[in-house]
Specification:
The complex is a heterodimer. By secondary structure, chain A is mostly helical. Chain A has 16 helices and no strands. In chain A, helix 6 (about 120-150) runs parallel beside helix 10 and helix 11 (about 240-250) crosses helix 12 (about 255-260). Chain B has 2 domains: about 1-75, no CATH class; about 75-305, MetI-like fold (Orthogonal Bundle), CATH 1.10.3720.10. The longest helix of chain B has about 45 residues, at about 1-45. The chains are: A mainly alpha, B mainly alpha. Chain B: One of its GO terms (biological process) is transmembrane transport.
């Protein structure tokens, strides 16, 4: 059984190298002494063929021996993440609706044509984009400002940090209940506060031109603590000399941050941006709990809510799958460059 | 010369105190901003239905200026919320605990195999793991429904064969889904930790002929304890807080297997009107486990989200 497994791993990864396989397998079965041999080989650092092939044997051995640790999860991921995404694309090309099995014999792009001509889907795509961009930018800027304040050598720093990050530990469903109450037309705090300066009251959730802004504001409340934590870690990593040098130059504090410190937060900004956008794509939970049920959220439909409604409420599975592919493509457009950036910088 | 330095220092100190006052004022305003919804929710959860509309949303139920004969305070909303949500809390624990432990363990194994052992095609495999973090779950929902449809009702009545009632099949499905989709983030969290681990001990153990399994069990696993704390807290919060999978796999707030998030989302919808007192009490009941975890392990939580 173990031998079969070893072979399977080999054929999966080194399939093309067929001829080598036999030799390497024998090497593997050489057992523990290969390890000590390998150790000597690394020390030798020579360029002759013998050393090189022994090194290769070592690569192969570790590959096979470590496979039980990572291969089963990898297969699980391959099926549940990549397999299902591929399957989802396939379903989006069918006319599958309702229960039973999709008919894979007749594939076409009908569902995408339908999505492109559906003003609700187009609006949901626009809303998704607005939500992604506006929420991410506001949460980044706001979180950075908080991080700078917290980083100014304050007392009770831990307490402040704990409070600012607290909303992040709560479920979208819970925070949606809170904000439903905050935005209440008659008794909500938001209307009470803006009433002090003579504005409102506004029906934040019911008014289709206000609801998206209201949602973005609530999401910023929930996640700017996260941005703060990321920026705080990045600020702490900047050597004190940079602050000192700016001080000696006589730069004002805002100027020092803008010219010297903020540019050094680039990597933190990139990683926070990606994670915030992922949160925004998951805002489904928040919207669902906020507007309830499968009702179309008035003016706040995003692709995530539209997809679930089409697939699970209207049982237009293929249509829902197509909307999901569009959403996935948007996520990939954000995450793809990030992953490539991390990959080329060897940051993974 | 020296007097000039002196005055400059003095003015600096003077500006510093003014600046300090402004700094703490700003921090205090931020505290108010971040706590306002929670505070408003908490006071509202303690009010009677008439007090909810009759008092200011941020004011406690006992308010000197209230025109109500009673002070409007009640624990009745908590009682009702708990009656409605208790099963949900139990169901959530039923899948959140095993799914958290399983995904953390698997993440640790995976990260070990991909970080502390060198082999050739490691990086491409790793990229696939990292990319898994960023998948919008909508992109897998329809096939996932199909998988569980086949397993439970269709060609393969697996859950029935295993003696699990179809109501509780949803719990099993939630464990599978949360473990499968939690593996990427757990792997990356452990990887970042293993990358900074000193490898000298591992290498010498290897040279002494220890197998990878032995190295993991004897050295890596015991050293992973701090990261296990981070990952377990992070995963528990994520799994407990999730609504989407619960909605898709359990589907109805009235199901006996409905998790607490699903119950809470259904709380407002199933009642006439909007009973904000009940909603707020329900929100606190549903949030209690993660709040407790957060208050007790705030540092580890922060570490988890920042990585």
């Amino acid at each position: 059984m173990e031998r079969f497994f070893t072979r399977l791993v080999r054929s999966l990864s080194l399939g093309a190298r067929g001829g080598r396989e036999e030799a390497e397998r024998t090497g593997t079965e050489g057992g523990e002494q290969v390890a000590t041999d390998g150790g000597v080989a690394t020390g030798g650092d020579g360029a002759d063929d013998g050393v090189r092939s022994r090194l290769e044997e070592r690569f192969g051995r570790d590959f096979v021996e470590s496979a039980p640790f990572w291969l089963p999860p990898f297969l699980l991921m391959a099926f549940f993440v990549y397999g299902t995404i591929g399957w989802n694309v396939l379903i989006s090309l069918t006319d599958f609706s309702g229960f039973g099995s999709p008919d894979y014999s007749n594939l076409d792009l009908d569902m995408y044509v339908r999505a492109a001509n559906d003003p609700n889907v187009v609006q949901a795509a626009v809303n998704t984009f607005v939500l992604l961009v506006a929420f991410t930018i506001v949460a980044l800027v706001f979180g950075m400002l908080i991080a700078i304040l917290v980083d100014r050598g304050i007392r009770f720093e831990n307490t402040f940090r704990t409070i600012y990050l607290l909303p992040m530990s709560l479920s979208f469903v819970v925070t949606a209940q809170f904000w439903l109450w905050m935005y209440d037309l008659d008794s909500g705090i938001v209307n009470a506060v803006i009433g002090l300066v003579g504005l409102g009251p506004y029906n934040w959730i019911g008014n289709s031109s206000l609801v998206l802004g209201a949602i973005i504001f609530a999401l910023v409340w929930q996640f700017s603590g996260y941005t703060m934590v990321v920026y705080l870690a990045a600020l702490r990593a900047i050597p004190d000399e940079h602050f000192e040098a700016a001080k000696v130059d006589g730069a004002s504090i805002p100027r020092m941050y803008w010219r010297v410190i903020v540019p050094q937060l680039k990597n933190a900004t990139i990683s926070a941006t990606v994670v915030l956008m992922v949160f925004a794509l998951k805002a489904f939970d928040f919207l669902y709990a906020l507007v309830g049920g499968y009702r179309p959220p008035n003016g706040a439909d995003i692709l995530a809510t539209k997809m679930v409604r089409e697939a699970y409420s209207n049982t237009n599975w293929a249509y829902g799958a197509a909307i999901a592919v569009i959403l996935f493509a948007m996520a990939l457009a954000v995450v793809g460059p990030y992953l490539y950036h991390q990959y080329t910088r060897d940051n993974l | 010369m020296s007097t000039e330095t002196h005055t400059r220092e003095e003015s600096f100190l003077a500006s510093l105190t003014g600046y300090r006052v402004a700094l703490y004022a700003a921090l205090g305003l931020l505290v108010a901003f971040f706590l306002a919804p929670i505070e408003a929710g908490f006071v509202t959860s303690l009010k009677t239905t008439s007090a909810v509309t009759g008092t200011a949303p941020y004011a406690p139920p006992v308010w000197p200026f209230t025109e109500f004969p009673t002070n409007g305070a009640t624990l009745g909303k908590y009682q009702r919320a708990f009656d409605t949500l208790a099963i949900g809390v139990f169901n959530s624990l039923l899948y959140a605990i095993p799914a958290t432990i399983l995904s953390a363990l698997i993440g640790s194994f995976t990260a070990y195999g991909l970080t502390l052992v060198d082999w050739k095609y490691q990086v491409p495999v790793l990229v696939l793991f990292v990319a898994g973090i960023f998948i919008p779950y909508q992109a897998v929902l329809v096939p996932l429904s199909q998988v569980f449809y086949i397993l439970s009702l269709g060609q393969l009545p697996l859950w029935n064969l295993l003696g699990i009632s179809s109501d509780y099949a949803g719990i099993i499905e939630l464990i599978i889904a949360h473990v499968a989709y939690g593996i990427p983030i757990c792997t990356i969290l452990f990887r970042s930790y293993y990358k900074s681990m000193s490898t000298e001990m591992l290498e010498s153990a290897r040279l002494d002929g220890a197998t990878l399994r032995r190295v993991y069990r004897r050295i890596v696993f015991p050293l992973s304890t701090p990261m296990f704390a981070v990952v377990l807290i992070y995963q528990f919060t994520q799994i407990w807080n999730d609504l989407l999978f619960a909605l898709i796999l359990v589907s109805s707030a009235t199901s006996p297997a409905a998790p607490v998030t699903l119950k809470l989302a259904g709380l407002g919808a199933s009642l006439e009107g909007v009973d904000f007192g009940l909603r707020m009490a329900g929100a606190f009941v549903a949030a209690l486990p993660t709040l407790v975890v957060y208050i007790a392990f705030g540092e580890q939580f922060a570490e988890g989200v920042a990585t």
